[in-house]
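Lab meeting, item 3. Inverse folding demo.
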């Protein structure tokens, strides 16, 4: 039972983002739900109501994030080395050394993130020796900015039994120098070998998972986010989310994507093993409704699957296009079997060949008449022009994450491996919207440094780097309007996650999930959009974050 007080918000600018984009001055809330807006809300004023005078402040629906890894982000914030991927190698190794000195002599050095642009620089025996020195003999497991690849030291290689003669695992690669020695760089599933060894030696306790998930949500609340989809959930995380909800401590809508396959995290169980337990983890605010399939890797490592080859001389074999992680018939088997059970799917695709394979497979599911499962093409930075209209035709959501529609670290890394004319054509967001496709915004945090949607919104509208660190624009013809950008981070996410009957806009009967902003996005200059902050975040009629005061909900 919702015990939130009855509220009446008055004297504000309330952007409902409803289908008519109404702006009202008042909103009434009872039992965590919106019961009236505008003059109808003012008519409900009474002694039982807590009156909040907004004094002209701007209110809008809580922001949503269709793609993040909130528990991993919480772990990095609480327990791991956590530095930005903009550091050069010297700076990164200095940070590793400082962090390592704080640890016990046998403790693992875990964290990140090293930038994708450093891949060739760290893939040498000399760099491995420097990492060994920085970590002081402790085993080390360090993630890249995409969280797909790992750099480990000699001690970790030894513990995992990895040598120059170790066969490449399926879906991964153990990088070697000219003499055949392992360099410590492990691509995709190569890193899982060490992840599993680390977990077996030092299992992550359940309390730490719950604490990390809670910390991730605290950070999301500070950015005004009240609903999100965890894009690669383990069974252990899903169980922790249910426990949080049943104890009254899950203050967000959470949709989980159960991992069907894994080339990154070392998750167990996978696929049917986790699907079999999903209903036991369902709760009021936790919805285990999707599977997650990794269909390719990431372009900077040459593991994204493309129709045309990577850049000649980028360090890959001649005419290298990358590969999908499974053949078409296996992907069809997954989507057909889960569709029959009403399970939707989020599919990781960074190259245009993997995007096309998903669209071809979804077409077969639709033709088979297997209900209306939701399908997300996650990331989808590169889409062949012929495939753009197929998103709307097949009801496939473009999950655009992280914010790679403006210049930055990862977009610069793309230029090193793809021909210039292709590297500069990332995220055709305006064209997708024009075709009628559902475009939903995500952060992919902690792949992104933060889950700040306002930086993504600014980038959508300007195609410029919100931090100003990287000059110029990226394919500015694909910029969208501010109104479209706000929908991409609110109601579009709710639709994509199957939550639009509950949240995503401020309408009567929906959950009272809203934020008070530092400024009205429609009244400020475009260059001021990245500076907008959530002053307060409310979920189901309860204040869960207050920049100037304390949360109504206890925060650990």
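The presenter then showed the designed sequence:
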């Amino acid at each position: 039972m919702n015990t939130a007080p009855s509220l009446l918000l008055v004297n504000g600018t309330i952007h409902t983002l409803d289908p008519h984009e109404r702006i009202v001055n008042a909103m009434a809330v009872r039992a965590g739900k919106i019961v009236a807006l505008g003059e109808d809300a003012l008519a409900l004023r009474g002694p039982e109501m807590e009156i909040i005078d907004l004094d002209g402040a701007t209110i809008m629906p809580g922001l949503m994030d269709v793609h993040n890894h909130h528990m991993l982000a919480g772990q990095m914030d609480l327990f791991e080395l956590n530095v930005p991927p903009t550091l050069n190698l010297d700076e990164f190794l200095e940070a590793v050394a400082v962090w390592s000195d704080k640890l016990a002599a046998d403790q693992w050095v875990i964290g990140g993130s090293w930038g994708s642009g450093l891949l060739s620089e760290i893939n040498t025996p000399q760099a491995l020796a420097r990492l060994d020195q920085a970590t002081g003999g402790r085993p080390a497991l360090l993630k890249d900015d995409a969280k797909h690849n790992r750099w480990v030291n000699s001690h970790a290689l030894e513990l995992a039994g990895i040598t120059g003669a170790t066969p490449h695992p399926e879906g991964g690669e153990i990088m070697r120098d000219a003499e055949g020695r392992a360099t410590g760089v492990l691509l995709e599933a190569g890193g899982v070998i060490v992840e599993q060894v680390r977990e077996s030696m030092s299992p992550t306790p359940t309390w730490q998972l719950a604490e990390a998930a809670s910390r991730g949500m605290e950070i999301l609340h500070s950015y005004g986010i009240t609903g999100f989809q965890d894009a690669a959930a383990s069974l252990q995380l899903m169980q922790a989310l249910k426990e949080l909800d049943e104890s009254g401590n899950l203050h967000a809508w959470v949709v989980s994507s159960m991992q069907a396959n894994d080339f990154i995290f070392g998750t167990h169980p996978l696929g049917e093993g986790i699907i079999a337990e999903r209903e036991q983890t369902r709760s009021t605010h936790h919805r285990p409704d999707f599977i997650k399939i990794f269909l390719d890797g990431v372009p900077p490592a040459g593991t994204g699957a493309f129709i045309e080859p990577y850049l000649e001389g980028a360090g890959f074999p001649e005419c290298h296009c990358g590969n999908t992680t499974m053949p078409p018939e296996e992907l069809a088997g997954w989507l057909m079997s889960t569709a029959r059970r009403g399970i939707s799917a989020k599919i990781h695709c960074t190259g245009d060949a993997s995007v096309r394979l998903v669209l071809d497979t979804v077409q077969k599911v639709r033709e088979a008449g297997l209900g209306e499962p939701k399908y997300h093409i996650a990331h989808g930075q590169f889409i062949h022009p012929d495939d753009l209209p197929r998103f709307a035709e097949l009801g496939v959501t473009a999950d655009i994450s992280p914010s790679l529609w403006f210049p930055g670290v990862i977009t610069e890394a793309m230029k090193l491996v793809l021909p210039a004319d292709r590297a500069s054509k990332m995220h055709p967001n305006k064209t997708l919207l024009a075709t009628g496709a559902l475009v939903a915004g995500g952060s992919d945090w902690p792949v992104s440094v933060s889950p700040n949607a306002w930086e993504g919104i600014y980038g959508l509208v300007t195609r410029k780097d919100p931090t100003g660190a990287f000059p110029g624009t990226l394919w500015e013809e694909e910029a969208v309007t501010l109104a479209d950008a706000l929908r991409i981070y609110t109601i579009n996410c709710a639709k994509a996650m199957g939550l639009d009957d509950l949240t995503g806009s401020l309408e009567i009967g929906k959950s009272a999930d809203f934020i008070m902003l530092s400024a009205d996005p429609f009244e400020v200059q475009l260059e001021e959009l990245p500076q907008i902050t959530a002053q307060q975040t409310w979920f189901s009629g309860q204040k869960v974050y207050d920049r100037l005061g304390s949360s109504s909900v206890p925060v650990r």
